Amino acid sequence: MRKQLLPALTLLAVLPALAGLSACGKEGTPPPKGPQPGALPSYEVRTAAPITGSPTLDAARARGHLVVGAKEDQPYLGQKNPATGEYSGFDIEIARMVGAYLGFGPDRIEFRTIASANRETALQNGQVDYYVGTYTINENRKKLVGFAGPYFIAGQALMVRKNETKINGPQDLAGRKVCSAAGSTPYQRIQANYPKAELVGYDTYSACVDNLISNQVDAVTTDNAILQGYVAKVPDELKMVGEPFSTEPYGIGVPKNDTVLRMAINDALQLNMDNGNWKKAYDATLGLSGVPAPQPPAIDRYK
Ligand code: GLU
């Protein structure tokens, strides 16, 4: 029988505790790794030649700060410390390097958690100025929002309980319960290509992970970059299986018609890829989940 390492305790409850960086590993195990603030780059806040012609930036300047959409439950990517309210992770660093280029230091960026299914609406309604949270660029979404980037390339993958032997790829999901976030590309791909899987949708991946650990579902599917973070946090419970079965280029979502903002963010990304900050940020965040930094991808300045 499987040893229940996390009885009744939900991962949703565990993850924030881990995010709090309290050294609360299980007895006898080293404390889990977390982003190490000391190793993070600092981004020069650009003050010369302010960008003109972006309604989004004009509104942010009038307000005094940027509002950036993000995730809060994705280890090493976008995570909120419940004790301090601080966000950290690779996506958060990307948001900060962009903010600095746009003239806003870290103390002038307010992060707001927005779930996968609500990203387009949040950008359309002006709830956020831009969005950085494992957001795949695709043609459907481009009808609703603009995308700077990509700044990272992920791929859809599968995560199961450590003792699972029968699920080794998406072809094994027939009749099994697989969980993903509503409105996400991985959710849509299972729906379209693996109709025999019993698809379960939640707002967040951490809810899926809770359900996996408590045997309510048999697998969680989303990007490898997200899953590897959960596995790194609870390696005794979880594992990834099979090979990635999609390409998920991560973009920064912007209001659809603010081309000035989109191009400025592309400039910001290129600058930080070229000066080494991108790699430094990766190494201090997502790199801690065990995958070395790839080459930064080529930016697509589509017309
Ligand atoms: N990258 C995928 C997407 O944008 C999955 C991750 C997420 O839901 O944020 O839909």
Main attributes of the structure:
303 residues, alpha/beta, D-Maltodextrin-Binding Protein, domain 2, five-stranded mixed beta sheet, three-stranded parallel beta sheet, binds glutamic acid
Q: How would you describe this protein?
A:
It is a single chain. Helix content is 30%, strand content 20%. The protein has 303 residues and is of the alpha/beta class. The chain folds into two domains: 52-153 and 249-289, Periplasmic binding protein-like II (D-Maltodextrin-Binding Protein, domain 2), CATH 3.40.190.10; 156-241, Periplasmic binding protein-like II (D-Maltodextrin-Binding Protein, domain 2), CATH 3.40.190. Helix 3 packs across helix 9 and helix 3 runs antiparallel to helix 10. The structure holds glutamic acid (GLU). One of its GO terms (molecular function) is ligand-gated monoatomic ion channel activity. InterPro entries: Bact_solute-bind_prot3, Iontro_rcpt_C, SBP_3_CS, Solute-binding_3/MltF_N.
**What is the residue-mean pLDDT, rounded to a whole number?**
91
The helix content, as a percent range, equals 25-40%
> Would you state the CATH class of the largest domain?
Alpha Beta
Going by helix content, strand content and strand pairing, the class is alpha/beta
Number of domains: 2
Organism: Kitasatospora cheerisanensis KCTC 2395
Family: Belongs to the bacterial solute-binding protein 3 family.
Signal peptide: 1-19
Pfam families: SBP_bac_3
